[in-house]
Write a structure and sequence with these properties.
Elements lengths: L5 H34 L8 E2 L5 H6 L5 H13 L17 H8 L2 E2 L2
Parallel strand pairs: 1-2
Length: 109
Amino acid sequence: MLNFTPEEKKVILFVLGLAFCGLILSNLVKVNGRIEMIINPQIQLAKLNLNKVSLDELIGLKCISSKMAQRILEYRTEHKEFASLEELKEVKGIGSQRYEKLNKIFFIE
């Protein structure tokens, strides 16, 4: 049969232990990713027309506060409508980072 020295047995156990830990960590990462997608889904089913969206629809978005929604609608009424999504940057409180998020949610028709 296989005759291993005590040192070889320790090395084999160490390598097997590492492989087992790797499998466990790999599965935890996969499960955690699935759980995160269930808790915080990143799916936006449909984009909203920025020139037709209502106050309630804007407030319903998690990245827009009620004050920000009001500012967006005020800007829209003052300028009749948005000509491009770039105009969102002119609304007070919308910088480049927030614009990148909103750019994925809205469209102009």
